[in-house]
Design goal:
By secondary structure, the protein is mostly beta strands. The protein is built from one helix and six strands, in the order ββαββββ. It has a six-stranded mixed β-sheet with strand order 2-1-6-5-4-3, covered by helices on one side. β1 and β2 form a beta hairpin.
């Protein structure tokens, strides 16, 4: 997955106080999700694409290692430059 991201990509996420910078940081973040939520899955609701942006509405769901299940609606806006994602902005309700 990291190969889709530019080396200096910026990931903005409500769960992070500061943006994650770089494809290696993003790979580590998502590896942590996969470890904590081994059965994590996403169900795409809508997908909008133009020449520079991809907007994805989806629901992420799964079961944590503690056995808690969750379902979280998310909207991600990807900005593309030269075939790589340079910005990944995620929006969701942390209280959900």
């Amino acid at each position: 997955m990291a190969s889709y991201y530019a080396n200096d990509v910026v990931l903005e996420d409500p769960s992070q106080a500061t943006p994650v910078i770089g494809s290696a940081g993003i790979a580590a973040k998502y590896a942590g999700y996969a470890e904590y939520i081994p059965d994590i899955q996403d169900s795409i609701i809508h997908l909008y694409v133009n020449d520079r942006h991809v907007v994805i509405e989806f629901i992420s769901y799964g079961t944590t290692v503690e056995g808690d299940t969750f379902s979280l609606p998310i909207c991600s806006i990807l900005t593309i430059d030269d075939g790589k994602i340079i910005r990944d902005a995620n929006y969701y309700d942390l209280k959900n």
